[in-house]
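ok so i was messing around last nite and threw this chain in just to see what happens. nothing serious, just curious
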Amino acid sequence: AVVSTQSTGGQVAAAKALALKLRAKWSPDQMENPTTGQFNKALEAIALERDHIEATEDQTQPDVAAMRSRAGGEMDAFSQSVFPAGYAIPEACKKVDYKPIIRKVEYSVRGGTLAKLPVADLRLYAKGVKLGLKSTAKKAELVAAISKFIG
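result:
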């Protein structure tokens, strides 16, 4: 099947309806930078000699449930106008969320337990922070590179 890269009038209308429905008043002063918040929690844990760093809520992530309740119909209409029936996102296009593994590895470094993590976790971390290691890197290489990277 030939796929067109040109938008149809229906697709443009569906996109406009969705954008209007999701429009919200927003100011960057309304939320804390998640990286700065996590850093502050880490400093607090170090200062108070705690073994655990409190998690911070990333307020920059979209509230999908609220979006769906506010504009569910428009979201569905847009998806149906853009993607053909039965369309599935190819596996290669699905984005990997590296945040959990990054937190896990960095916590292990601070706790001195990095070498106890599985090689798969170390490789995923190295890929997530773009250390430039080969996918066949040995555990010792991974541990050394990650320790040097984190400092």
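not much to say yet. The chain has a mean pLDDT of 86.
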